[in-house]
Design goal:
Distance between the termini of chain B: 99 Å
Shape of chain A: globular
Largest sheet of chain A: 5 strands, mixed
Strand content of chain A: 5-15%
Strand order of the largest sheet of chain A: 4-3-5-7-6
Number of strands of chain B: 7
Strand content of chain B: 5-15%
Helix content of chain B: 55-70%
Largest interface: A-B, 40 and 31 residues
Oligomer: heterodimer
Number of strands of chain A: 7
Strand order of the largest sheet of chain B: 4-3-5-7-6
Structural class of chain B: mainly alpha
Helix content of chain A: 55-70%
């Protein structure tokens, strides 16, 4: 029986679903491909477009990560062509060592021909489109059902993790792209392409241990699925390259990352997007994934049990150690969720109305999760007001403390960008919530803390910051400000609304208001307040 | 002639009459107790404000300008809409007295139908309905509180009933879907039902019972519907508090008052001795001896509630209401088993004596505590003097001025005076809930006027309410700093004092 006839028969048995059967029968490879790529384009440009309408410019990307990577790319641009894994980052108080990543090196080099502001905006989207293309090609090789491919891609595209990965300028986008590209080349029958995959295996370890584990897991599952000797040999070669490369790349890398105490944020709110996780799964993605996994396990095949173990370990790792591994896991979750959704559609239900309602709720849940995340990301800091405040601070600092600011044009009030990059000599120290630090650093200021907790003595610094923010004793606060040579205090609306303070005159807010000899408000807008600490002895 | 009288029909009429009598008797007792005071328990006033708002504008408010000085709120509004609908034909407060009590009493019919379905015995069903009318914790929690549980509990068990019958007829699937939809719109505790059904599925697997496809489909649908609606309505709260939303952002200092450790003796008293002891016995019997599908459904639900209580993921009182209702249903099973043994034994002629004995024990251990709790609940309602004193604040104060009271009286203060409160019991979406709670404690207990004034200034509080409840809570007669020149009493009698703040401090650093 032909595939179309089989589908028709199966759908007839399962009961009508809003003309869905006709839709499936009319699908062609070309149509599916166009739908997927078009949807990918629309999803990926949704956030930049929404940001443009909110801020009036494309130069202020959402979230703090792009600012860190922008700064590092500028650093690499200035250092080009010198290449070193271990560099000095002076934008955290006391400085630290950091290891360069491929994205920053590449973007730094590319910025000689393309403006860095455009790279920050366009590169993740481009990586996203290429990743989707490669992923689609992988699916085409492994999966014959057009509908299944379409649903997998749709769930992937609507997932908050995918949107975050390919909208935010960070190494995640490149890492995912290289990983699936390597896997795509690995599964090709052409030997030459397989060798290309080995080349990519050389650089994959630079994105972290989990990237290595994930590609190894994917290749091993492929071998279990195919059970061919040639694939096993290729797997062994790839594994050897990955291990050697890891040792080569990680050993110096491990020397750079010191063993400061690991700070774990609330795991659940870092894992589920609907609970506020920046790189988290939607609840419906997870529910469908569990359902899909249950469906697969019912088939009682060995590779499905291996998959289960892999999923459980990965989830535990993501939950308790590092939620950023969700960028890889998302592909697996989307595939399993698609299996779940398809099963929901295809099984024969006792009451067709309940089936229809269930599928409608699931589709609404997935869509709302996507729309809500796009909305959240578009509205996230920094705003135009935020950037204007930092620009003011840059000028104020340059004027009063004589730091030369190259690269900030009078016309561009928003931020320093592009080939006319500033000479990044550290300015004054600014105290703020750690979530603002990457942005402050990108605007040329030194911060006391930042979100890279494992690269400095974060626990001590966070405690000191907290004491300085909460204390109403002028001496205590001043001692701490002097300890870190703080010159400015940068206060956002979020900090006033629960991130640091809960009440009007809580802790430092009281001191700022009542100690005019020590603090002067130099900037105030709806969202931002900047205070200058006068007696810092810097 | 004799054939014209259908004995079966007569039986139905007899049971229906019994049921109606139980309903009317329970409703009469409830309304009698409830109308002993024109007021409500303190925590009822938020719901009353919402009901009045819906009556006037057709929509609930999701920004409460009076609570915590103004804050967003999130809740499921079905209950408020229903009471507001009836409030169109009478005063809102009368509707709020009568309608929740009627809703709470419909529970009797639902319990009758469930018990009848699982026991196939009308006597047991009638007795179960009677017992369910007087589960002490349910009785007093839904008596004078304008509580959404008046609607939620009957609706939840109605949904439960439809679930038990979905294998009988497809129409019950539709009924289940509709009732689940309304239940989800009524309260977030629908999640407990879902957990219960999942545990039931586990029992089916473990006990190797025949799997029902329709049950699986319905459970799947229920999971998706309840998760979706809950996330949709509580999105803001989930983003603000993350997983801590389960504990409703209640300050840690009073969290243990809400999410208490379960005490067996207290549980027995609040649920009733008969349903508790005999319900547990039936669970034991089902686990080790009999395999009855519908008992597993009830067991699944009771285990979900027990687990949540044990892990302190649900408020004790709410958990006990659910547990009490399920154990009452399980008791019906015992009733059948017991009288079946009695009838087969040489004591069959003494059946009526046993029934009388059951009723006597039930009256002593369920009806008496219910009415006693009910009277206590009525006594806890604010006195007329308290209401009058708050009305004086309305005359004395400006609309923007803030009044401090203990959290339990916050909503009462806002409702009667129309002024902002500093704190009440709905902590969700309040960023500084804990600090406010601690500051409230300090304001009431501090011996220093400077400290108190600083805190009062911080929240722009103008009036301090010292009610009998706040005196009891802090174990004091008066504010220690009240004699100072900065505070003037605007109302004072032997029980209630209201102070107005006259000073502001210039704080040093």
């Amino acid at each position: 029986m032909s595939r179309k006839k089989k589908n028709k028969q199966r759908n007839k048995e399962a009961g009508s679903f809003f003309g869905f059967e006709g839709f499936e029968e009319n699908l062609t490879e070309k149509k599916v491909f166009i739908y997927v790529m078009l949807a990918a384009f629309l999803v990926l440009i949704a956030v930049p477009v929404a940001r443009f309408y909110l801020t009036g410019t494309t130069a202020i990307p959402p979230s703090d990560t792009p600012y860190y990577n922008h700064r590092m790319s500028v650093y690499e641009q200035n250092a080009f062509p010198e290449f070193s894994l271990s560099r000095q980052d002076d934008y955290i108080f006391g400085s630290r060592k950091y290891s360069a990543n491929l994205l920053n090196i590449g973007a730094g080099a590319l910025s000689f021909v393309i403006p860095l502001s455009f790279i920050v905006l366009a590169l993740p989207v481009l990586f996203g489109l290429i990743s989707m293309l490669v992923f689609y090609l992988i699916l085409s090789k492994l999966e014959k059902s057009l509908l299944k491919k379409l649903i997998i891609c749709a769930i992937l595209l609507a997932s908050p993790v995918f949107i975050n990965t390919f909208v935010i300028f960070s190494p995640n986008a490149l890492s995912v792209l290289l990983l699936i590209l390597a896997f795509f080349l690995f599964i090709q029958e052409n030997k030459l392409l397989a060798y290309f995959s080995f080349l990519l295996m050389l650089i994959i370890p630079s994105f972290g241990l989990f990237a290595v584990i994930f590609i190894l897991g994917a290749m091993f599952c492929y071998y279990i699925y195919k059970k061919e000797k040639a694939i096993f040999i290729n797997f062994l070669i790839a594994a050897g390259i990955l291990v050697l490369s890891s040792l080569f790349i990680f050993l110096p890398y491990l020397q750079v990352i010191s063993n400061y105490e690991y700070i774990l944020l609330n795991p659940l709110s870092q894992f589920i997007s609907d609970l506020g996780a920046p790189i988290g799964f939607g609840v419906f993605n997870l529910l469908l994934m569990f359902f899909g996994l249950a469906v697969l396990l019912r088939q009682k095949e060995r590779h499905n049990y291996i998959l289960l173990i892999f999923v459980v370990i990965s989830f535990l790792f993501s939950f308790y150690i590092d939620p950023s591994v969700n960028i890889y896991l998302n592909f697996l979750v989307s595939i399993l969720a698609a299996y779940g959704l398809l099963k929901l559609i295809r099984i024969k239900w006792t009451v067709v109305l309940v089936k229809r309602l269930t599928v409608i709720i699931v589709v609404c849940g997935l869509s709302f999760s996507c729309v809500s995340y796009i909305n959240r990301l578009s509205m996230s800091a920094p705003s135009k007001d935020y950037a204007a405040a930092l620009d003011f601070l840059g000028r104020h600092d340059a004027k009063n403390y004589g730091v030369v600011l190259e690269g900030i044009s009078d016309k561009d009030l928003n931020r320093q960008t592009d080939s006319a990059s500033p000479v990044y000599s550290p300015h004054s120290v600014v105290l703020s919530h750690y979530s603002n630090s990457f942005i402050l650093q990108d605007f040329g200021f030194v911060t006391v803390t930042d979100p890279l907790f494992s690269t400095y003595n974060a626990k001590q610094r966070l405690n000191d910051s907290d004491t300085a923010f909460q204390s109403r004793k002028l001496k205590t606060t001043k001692d701490l400000l002097d300890k870190y040579s703080v010159r400015y205090i940068f206060i956002t609306k979020d900090m006033r609304q629960g991130a640091v303070w809960w009440k009007e005159e809580q802790g430092m807010l009281f001191l700022l208001k009542n100690a005019p000899a020590d603090f002067a408000k130099i900037y105030s807008s709806e969202e931002i307040e900047i205070w200058e600490y006068k007696n810092n002895g810097v | 002639m004799k054939k014209l009288i259908n004995p079966e029909k007569f039986r139905i009429t007899k049971y229906a009459l019994f049921l109606l009598l139980i309903f009317l008797a329970t409703l009469s007792i409830r309304l009698y107790l409830s109308f002993q005071t024109p007021d409500f328990s303190s925590e009822a006033y938020f719901n009353l404000r919402e009901i009045e708002n819906i009556k006037q504008t057709g929509a609930p408010f999701f920004y409460d300008s009076l609570s915590f000085g103004g804050r967003p709120i999130t809740f499921m509004p079905l209950f408020h809409y229903i009471v507001a609908f009836f409030a169109l034909f009478m005063d809102a407060w009368i509707a709020a007295k009568i309608i929740p009590n009627i809703m709470a009493c419909t529970f009797i019919f639902i319990m009758y139908f469930i018990a009848k379905h699982i026991t196939r015995n009308r006597d047991a069903a009638i007795f179960t309905a009677f017992v369910s009318a007087f589960i002490p914790i349910y009785f007093h929690k839904t008596l004078n509180n304008i509580s959404e549980f008046s609607l939620v509990i009957p609706l939840l068990f109605l949904t439960f009933y439809f679930f038990l019958r979905i294998n009988d007829d497809n129409k019950y699937i539709i009924y289940f879907v509709v009732s689940l939809f309304f239940l989800t719109l009524a309260h977030q505790t629908v999640i407990i039902l879902i957990l219960g059904l999942l545990i039931y599925l586990l029992f089916v697997k473990l006990e190797k019972l025949e799997e029902s496809k329709v049950e699986l489909e319905i459970i799947l649908f229920s999971i998706f519907l309840s998760v979706w609606l809950t996330f949709l309505v509580f999105k803001q709260a989930l983003l603000a508090h993350g997983p801590n939303v389960i504990w409703q952002n209640i300050p840690p200092e009073i969290l243990s008052e809400y999410f208490k450790n379960i005490n067996i003796l207290e549980a027995v008293y609040l649920i009733g001795v008969i349903p508790f002891a005999l319900g547990i016995y039936i669970i034991y019997k089902t686990i080790f001896q009999e395999k009855k599908r519908h008992i597993y459904v009830l067991m699944g639900f009771s285990m979900a509630v027990a687990a949540l209580l044990w892990l302190k993921l649900i408020q004790l009182e709410i958990g006990l209401i659910y547990l009490g209702a399920v154990l009452t249903l399980l008791f019906s099973q015992y009733y059948v088993a017991f009288f079946s043994v009695v009838e087969k034994s040489h004591m069959s002629k003494a059946k009526n004596i046993f029934v009388a004995l059951f009723i006597l024990i039930f009256v002593l251990t369920s009806i008496y505590p219910s009415v006693s709790y009910g009277i206590q609940e009525i006594e806890k309602a604010p006195s007329q003097k308290e209401i009058e004193s708050l009305k004086i604040i309305t005359e004395e104060s400006q609309p923007h001025e803030i009044i401090i009271s203990i959290p339990e009286e916050g909503q009462l203060v806002s409702y009667v005076s129309g002024r902002k409160n500093m704190i009440d019991t709905n902590f969700i979406l309040v960023a500084d809930a804990r600090h406010r709670y601690l500051d409230m404690n300090t304001i009431y207990t501090s011996p220093y006027s400077v400290e108190a004034i600083q805190l009062l200034n911080k929240y722009d509080i103008k009036y301090i309410l010292l009610s009998p409840s706040s005196r009891r809570k802090f174990g004091m007669n008066d504010l220690k700093y009240a004699e100072k020149e900065c505070f003037t009493p605007v109302y004072s009698d032997e029980n209630i004092k209201i102070y107005k703040l006259l000073c502001r401090t210039q704080e040093g650093i």
